Amino acid sequence: MKKDHKELDEETLFIVSQTFKALSDPTRIRILHLLFDGEHSVNDIAEHLSLLQSTVSHQLRFLKNLRLVKFRREGTSLFYSCDDEHVMDILKQTIEHANHH
Predict the structure, then answer these.
(1) Which residues contact residue 27 at a Cβ distance below 8 angstroms, ignoring those fewer than 6 apart?
(2) In what residue span(s) does the HTH arsR-type domain sit (predicted)?
(3) Among 58, 75, 77, 78, which is most buried by a count of CB atoms within 10 Å?
(4) DSSP 3-state assignment of 32?
């Protein structure tokens, strides 16, 4: 017996495709992977990953717009952390999958 399959609406399709787009970029993957450990400032991320601060800020803005990361302000610094455990679980599983090949 076949289950009725509900068609995806346009908004869902867009969000899913944007999420996979976010996870398709090596720099964004590196940033999210670093955030597995907890929150980091923009400068800290740039230093850890040997990236320009402007590159990190650009990528974090992309991830924030998709609600994959969130930030808090402390003085003049922004501290970023993961904001979507579902997507982080997908990323962890994909990394584990890649490490088993």
Answers:
(1) 49, 51, 55, 59
(2) 8-101
(3) 78
(4) helix
